[in-house]
Amino acid sequence: MRSLLGSLGSAVSNTSPGFSVDIYCGDQLRCRYDASVRTVWVEMMAKGIPCITRDLLEEMERGSHALERAFAPHANDHGLDFLVIRSLHSQAFSLGGDFALFIDLIDRQDREALNDYANAAIAAQFRNYTGHGIRGVTTIALLEGDALGGGLECALSCDVVIAESHIRAGFPEVLFNMFPGMGGMSFLVRRVGQRVANEMVRSGRLYSAQELLELGVVDEVAQASGGLDAVRRVIGRTQPQRFAQAAISSAARLVQPVPRSELEQVVSVWVDRALSLDDRGRAWMKRLFRHQSITFGKLQSVPLTDISRAA
Asked: With 0-12 CB in 10 A as exposed, 13-18 as middle and 19+ as buried, what is 308?
């Protein structure tokens, strides 16, 4: 542990409760380590529409490798038990894919660039799913705002999902003749089974936090603005059994594995579908993008539950 602390800088060695040090800090992503609870907080810092841009994916990759460099070499006691992913945006965890980019690439029929984005997305999901190469870490997604499409895919790549009571989440892609192709179906089926996954993906509807809990999509629902406290309680409650918890997560990945090859094959289907979108599907996508731009670009308060009526 001493060598790890040294590698993170002298500030960490004097860590007190609530004090943290940056492992990675970019324009749209920050990874903070709090040694007092042996936890890294991964915080998305959206600019404009809170979606998964190409820049964010690149920062996710850099942040993941920074975490691996800091913790993975210290296998006996690397000082990290939990990794919590959250968004600092006040309204959304993530709205998913970058519609502005998708519209441009589909209009230009740019298969190479669309493939590049999609494969970067599954690389980020897979590294999170496998704990960023760090043995024994438990990943937690904290939904303090709505999670749509790729945003929900990101959350489902975690071992534990905690949602605040007011949030909505789902896969609206079918509304514009698409489907969640960057890990969502794979992670969802492993979590809730084929029947529930089919219903969620094929309906395109958004679900309340309580519905998600009953379906098994999320593991715990916290009161509004109480998500951080709920995460801290989970960490405190499971810390004495942290080795068992980590082993259970590892065993679960062995029992119902999500191989990288599966994600890549699904992405191939997704890219083909995107490039085949008809005029109606593209119109839906453009209207949804316009809705997002009005809601978040101009900071107007428009409920995300209205997204199915945006067209």
From this structure: middle
Give dist(CA 276, CA 260) in Å, integer: 25
pLDDT digits (tens, 9 = 90+) for 234-266: 999 988 888 898 888 888 888 989 999 999 999
| pTM for the model | 0.89
Which residue segments constitute the domains of the chain, with CATH numbers given? 2-225+245-309 (3.90.226.10)
Say how many C-beta atoms besides its own lie within 10 A of residue 86's C-beta.
21
